[in-house]
Amino acid sequence: MKFWRPGITAKLFLAILTTCIVLLVIMHWAVRISFEHGFIDYIKRGNEQRLQMLSDTLAEQYAQHGDWQFLRNNDRMIFDILRSFERDNNHEDDRADRPEQAMQRNRTMGDNGRAAQGMESYDPPPGPPGPPPPHGWRTQFWVVDQHNIVLVGPHGTVPDEGNRRAIVVNQKTVGWVIASPVERLTRNTDINFARQQRRTSWLIVGLATLLAALATFPLAGGLLAPVKRLVEGTHKLASGDFSTRVKTDSQDELGRLARDFNLLASTLEKNQQMRRDFMADISHELRTPLAVLRGELEAIQDGVRKFTPESVLSLQAEVSTLTKLVDDLHQLSMSDEGALAYQRTPVDVVTLLEIVAGAFHERFASRNLNLSLDLQSTSSRVFGDPNRLMQLFNNLLENSLRYTDSGGQTLIQSTTRDGKLILSFADSAPGVSDEQLTRLFERFYRTEGSRNRASGGSGLGLAICLNIVEAHAGTIHAGHSPFGGVTITVELPLEGEESREV
């Protein structure tokens, strides 16, 4: 049996929705508890206000009658007094007249039991605007005289913990108005109102949950859309499609991740193309001298050409070409891996350049080329490997020798600036284009025209130079020469400055 495993979109949707539901339920219970406590407090305040008003009114009536005979077992009068509070709440100056009116109505009505029942279920209508009077009683209440004898109220024990308001006449307590404590809702109308509020609150929670679900699903999808694009792009990249790119339309972390992904894909695509070009170039470079060797040997074997010292020299020349190519490939691979041994020591670069230039003078002269030097005699010491630096200078001069027309020149200059030794190798025509300058240090790259494969180079010399210079914490770049050719500029940190370059 296969179980459903939610994806990241479903997980994010469920996480957000669950958080919304938990918050809604917590808010529901918080509002419900706040409402119930607030409603009970409201009832308490209303009852306390009514107790005070009833106490003041009964004190006035007691002062007029002199005793409690007018109220004994007269629940109807209390009911009329309470109803008059609600009906005439905007006429405070008429309050003294209400007890007389109540007593007059009480004389014409005699059913005290029915009046008491009406008082207990009394629920006054809402008052007009202005300071609202206390609403109907939500609890039982009693009126007792100074001897705690019940004058009005249900039969039974008067609660000691109930709310009391003294009835004071001439600074003497003649009785109390007592209400039972309000700890919970007891009236049916109040209970029904609370239930209605709970049902409404749960309905709001349900509707809010539905709206949260409808809003969360597209939100989760929108948030994860960049992630899905990255996942799809990664699958294509893993399958070998290095041309894959993902859309970048944000500046957040996902946007930066998408840009890094595109950079990685571009680098892999470039490396793949370089690998293909590298293999094709190696095959071509090896095929040419091998074909010449094979042709020479077959000609000798078939008797077309005699085995003479001249033919041996021709064979040796092709073998030397192959040997040089293999040596260059070996040097390049070792420098790529950092396996070249560098025996660093303080080196006077000017002295090394003079030695290398002296070795090339005869070869330059044989091709009718002029090799000149303009070197500083001070501040030319660097911390490096003299053998690798000589290999660097040999490759640069070999490059100028191979790719400069007869009758031209090469000028080597040196200067210091900002703690660096700057060397320039400028030769004469032919020159190269701006696009070709940016590719001179690529492996097996040769420009068209005179600087081409016919000159005999492997196309690896400048790539090896780049690795040697970088191993010495320096830089190398190509530019146009004032003599119409190419200027190779090398910058190396002077001795004592190399640690600052790290």
Task: Considering the chains and any ligands shown, give keywords for the structure.
3 domains, 4-stranded antiparallel beta sheet, 12 helices, 502 residues, alpha+beta, 5-stranded mixed beta sheet, Heat Shock Protein 90, single chain, Helix Hairpins
In order across it, which strands form the biggest sheet? 6-8-9-11-10
Low-confidence stretches: 92-136, 448-456
CATH class division of the largest domain: Alpha Beta
What is the beta-strand fraction?
A: 5-15%
Helix content: 40-55%
What is the terminal-to-terminal distance? Answer: 60 Å
Enumerate how many helices there are, as a single number.
Answer: 12
Integer tally of domains = 3
Mean pLDDT: 76
The CATH topology label of the largest domain is: Heat Shock Protein 90
> What is the succession of H and E elements?
HHHHEEEEHHHEHEEHEEHHEEH
How many individual β-strands? 11
Provide the gyration radius in Å.
53 Å
By CATH, the architecture of the largest domain is named 2-Layer Sandwich
User: Biggest β-sheet: count, sense, barrel?
Assistant: 5 strands, mixed
